[in-house]
Amino acid sequence: xxxxxxxxxxxxxxxxxxxxxxxxxxxxxxxxxxxxxxxxxxxxxxxxxxxxxxxxxxxxxxxxxxxxxxxxxxxxxxxxxxxxxxxxxxxxxxxxxxxxxxxxxxxxxxxxxxxxxxxxxxxxxxxxxxxxxxxxxxxxxxxxxxxxxx
Length: 150
Fold this sequence. Notes:
single chain, elongated
C-alpha cells in the first residue's frame, strides 16, 4: 500500500502494475480480487490486468475454477472466463467443495450441484460442506444432525 492505494508486488519487491485499488486480495488460481474506488470487485491476472471485462458487487477467491459473485440479481457462480456456471441466483452462496456448494433461498440453506440444482428438498438454518459424503446441518432451533449424499 502507498498513499494512492493498494497494489501487488513481485518476489523482488517491484510493483506488478501502476493501478491502485481501495483493497487487494491475495492470488488464488492465478487470479486475484481487487476492489476499485467505486467499491466494485474485479479480478486481475498475474500481470495485474483485468481478467475479463466485468465487475461485481462482491467477488471471492476462485476454487477449482469457480467462484461465488454477488450481482444485483443475487449470488451465483462464475468460471475463470467470467461466464456464469449455471445462471441461477440465490440469496447466499458458498464455493464448490467436492462437487457441491452451500446455497440459501427464502426458505433456508441447502446444497446444490454444479448445475445449480438442489440435491434435496429440505431447508436448514445452516449447512456445512460435505466431507466424506456427510454434511453437518442445523434444523429448527439449532438442532444438529448429519445428512448423507445418496
